[in-house]
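quick one before i forget lol
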Amino acid sequence: MRVYAFSGNVDFCHAAAVNPSLFPPESVVGFAGPTPAGLEPAAAQTAPAYPYNEGDANEFPLVNPQPHGSSTGFTFDIGKYWGNLSPWYSLHSADYGLPDADPLIPEGCEITQLHLLYRHGARYPTSDAAPPTFAHKIANATETGFELGAELLTPFGRSQNFLLGVAYRQLYGHLLNNFTEAGTIPVFRTESQDRMVKTAQNFAAGFFGVPEFLDQVNLEILVENATVNNSGASYDMCPNANITSRGSIGSTVAAQFANNAFNATIARLQSQISGINFTSTDAIAMLQLCSYETIALGYSAFCDLFSQEDFLNYEYYYDLTFYYNNGPGSPVAAAQGKGYLDEFIARFTGEYPQANSALNETFDNTSTYFPLNQSIYADATHEVVVLDTLTAFNLTALFQGPPLSVTGNRGQNSFLASRLVPFATHFTTQVLSCPVYQPTKQIRFIINDAVIPINNYPGCPENLNGLCSFENVVSVLQSRSSEIDFNYDCFANYTAAPGMDYNGRAPNS
C-alpha cells in the first residue's frame, strides 16, 4: 500500500509576475497563420443520437457511428482509426513490452522534474488539405457550401488541451512548490499560429485555473515562419522535408496505397451518384470529412459511407504517411527532431544548446526565455514535430518490427499513427529520485500514458518500470545528437526510398 503526504500550500503562490514586455501576447507577436472560422456546430439537431458520456471524456460530446455494413450489436470505435486526426486515447505499457509499468511514480521513487511535449487539440482542416478541394468539386456539381473553417482549434480541441492541463495539475501540481520557494513562475512555450497559442492558453487554463493562468505563467510565443528558427516548427528550416524523394516519401507511398485500397468503395459510392467521378483522393477526402466534421460539428454523415475495412485502410494510409515522413523510414525525421532533443539535453545538463539544428539560439541562450532549472516544462508543438522528436530520441520500441509494407501488409510493426500523433498527443519525461536504485537519479519516457522501454539504449538494462540511470540516458542522448547531421540530412542532395528503416537519418550520411 502506498501512503503519501505532501506539505506546502494548496494554491500556487508566487512572488514573481507575468512580464508582458518580455513575453508579449499573440496580438503583438503576430504570424498567426490562416484563421477562417467555420459553421457553428449544431449536433443537438444534426446528430442521430445523443452523445451520452459513458466515462470516456475524450469522446464526449462527439458521435461516432458504426461503419457501413456493420450488424446490430457490432462495436468498432472508428475514432481510433483516423491517424493524426484521432482524438488521443490512453495507451498501455503492455503494448510496448512493459506489462507491469504505469505512469504512476514507481514504489520507492519521487519525481523531481517533469518535461512535457504535447500537440495542439482537434482543429479544422489545414488550408491545403483534401476536404476543401473535394468541397469545391462537390460545390461545382451541386452548389453546396463548405461548412468547416481552417487551421483553428475546434471547441472539442480546446477542451482536449484544457483537460490535459487539469490532468497534469492533478498528477504533478506539487512540483509548483519549487517555483514558490524560488519566487519565480514557469515559462511555457508554444508557436505563433493561432491554434498553437490557444492550445497553450487552454492547457495553462486547465493547469492553473481561470483567470489565474493569466498571471501564473509566462507564455513564450515563438514565431512560426520560414525565416525564423523554431524547434517547434522545424520543417520550415529543413528544405529536404518537402522534397518527394527525401522528406515526403511517405506522402507519395500513402497516395499509391490509396489508389488500390478503395476501389470497391469508390465503385459502390459511384453507383449511387451521377455527375461526379470519384477518385481515391476523393475517398480520402470523404474519410477526412468524417473525422473533421465529427471533431468540429459533433457528428458527420460521411462516416456512415465507409466500412470497417475502409477505416482500417484509412489508418494504414496515415501509418505510411507518418512512418516514412517523420518516423524511422524518413531520412530527415531525426534532423527535424534534433532541436527538441538538444533542448531536452540542455535542460537535463544545465548547459545551453548549440545552434546546429532548427532551435532558435537567440531564445535558447538566456535564462529569461530558456530557463534551465524549472521543475516543470511544457512545450506545445505539431504532431509531425512530436514524431520527429520521438525518432530523434531513438525510441525504437515505438517502431518495433520491419519497415512498413508499402502494399498494405502490416506485418509485425508496432507503429500506429493514431497512437503517436493523435490530437493532443503528449510525450512525458519523468526525472526521478529513487533511493532503492543505484544510482539514485533515474529517468523514463511516457507516451499517452504508456511507459516506453529504453533497453535499446546502451547501458540501460531491462527494467519493469522503464527506468534507467539519468546520467547514462543523458550520455546516450548526447551521442545520438552528435550523430545527427542536420545540415546534411536537411540540405544535401540524396535519394531515399520507401521500405527502408533509416532510423530517421539520411542514407550515406
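fyi The two ends are 52 Å apart (CA to CA).
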